[in-house]
Amino acid sequence: MTEGSISVGKRKTAVAKASIRKGMGKIRVNSVPLEIHNPEIARRKMLEPVLLAGEKAGGFDIDVDVNGGGVMGQAEAARTAIAKSIVTFLKDEQLEQVFRQYDRSLLISDPRRKIPKNPAGRGARKRKQKSYR
Q: Distance between alpha carbon 96 and the CA centroid of its chain, in Å?
């Protein structure tokens, strides 16, 4: 076990930084305990790596700071940061394999970004119509 480390998770424009250290099993997202974090679907998304870790996820505290993006983008970024920090803290390759088999995005940040708007239309793909008559 390493003594405290920082992991980063990204999704769309949301960036989450998770710091982990020995403790009693508390998880805080933006200084709010995860148990009272809303909406519930985002809370469940962030709890997935802890539930998959099972009994191994008991002896440490995780503080997550999330910026940018929307509610679910932040939840998925935090989920990735939490999973990465647990794996690096425990140095457990078997747990890493469990995370990868469950969902690859637990350990690897999602690289997809939105396409920028183009000058020929109103959005990234929409174009002005042409009329030849």
A: 16
